[in-house]
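Q&A log
Question type: sequence-to-structure
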Amino acid sequence: MAELSTIARPYAEALFAAAKNDQAGLAAWSEAVSELAQISSVSDVREAMSDPRLSKDQRKKLFPGLARSPLSKGMQNFIELLVDNDRLLLLPEIAAQFEELKNRHEGSASAEITSAFELSDAQIQELLTGLEKKFGCKLKPVVTVDKSLIGGIRVTVGDQVLDTSVQAQLARLRDTLVAA
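Response status: OK
Response body:
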């Protein structure tokens, strides 16, 4: 995966630079690149876009047509660049890196919160308040439920993980007992 992120980084940075200087704003670009990343993640689309029978010109016309809304000229140019360099299928990784750059620019970050049980809005807000103090930035929560955690939560912000789940505590206990 490190190789994909290395290849995608210059594209994400170039896209971010173009979006930052555009009147439409970062939110519009983020929405467009996210939609295109979702489209390029569909297995049928991936298969079609890597079909050697399709020329680059055909790909340049076909792929943008899959989007729900019309693409800006800048986004169309970006898609053409990706097609020309055979990097269209990197869109999901480019979109993820673009979102990280956008969040960093806005002074925020995405927080992946995984809980063993469903959390109420009040619990999420209380948790976010504490996490924002700990991480020193505004957090955008993405909450999921994973019953295998048994209890507690796991929070991932960037490359930092805060794991207070029962599953993690049991794993630490097992490691301690094995090492003794």
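Response note: The first helix runs from residue 2 to 20.
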